[in-house]
Amino acid sequence: ATSSTMDKVTTNACSGSASERAVLNDDASVTTPWTVRLLSGSGLPANNVKITSDGTLSFWLKTNTAQSGATVQVWFDDVDGAEASPALTILNDGEWHQYSFDLTNFAGTTVTTGNGALDGDTVTLDAIVLKQPNTSSSWTVYFDDVIHDRAASGTKVSSQNKLLDDFEVSTGHFDQAPTNTAGTQYTVGISTSSTLQDRKSVV
User: Fold this and answer.
1) Which residues contact 189 (CB under 8 A, 6 or more apart)?
2) In angstroms, rounded to a whole number, what is the distance separating the alpha carbons of residues 154 and 15?
3) pLDDT single digits (tens) 68-83
4) pTM above the 0.70 mark?
5) If you average pLDDT over residues 106-129, what whole number do you get?
6) Rounded distance between C-alpha atoms, residue 18 and residue 9, angstroms
């Protein structure tokens, strides 16, 4: 099967001149639903920018090849482990949409050793996580403007926000080619210090 890819493109941007494109291809030997974890800075807090645990974390996403029921969520590394946000339904209309996650009223779930809440004064972004029912079809997703905004304004120019990645440079937190790992866990690089992972669903 054709390997999945993750790369910067200049043909499709929400703002500026570039965005990040993930082309995800099915592993036909596996029938479980897809879970694709786009790791920021290898999912290691030391490789990521600290943000305060308030306001919103948002990004823009575009796709028209998602399966019905596809969702997106974010994972954070907190003082007591990793926490997952509530999932948002992906709009599959080929248009750019902003997906925003409330950090002040997080109401998440535990990934590893956490408690579903953001307890630390600061956290780091672990990953953007895509999920959808199993399919043999490829899934192409574009991302742009990953922003932490303490004022929850949803705008790139807010005086209280921190731009985590706008994909205008060739090496950011999300930028590299994929490799397969032992057939049981899928790993894709998304920068010189980052990886994208999928559990038994794509190649």
Assistant:
1) 6, 176, 177, 178, 179, 195, 196
2) 14
3) 999 999 999 999 999 9
4) yes
5) 93
6) 6
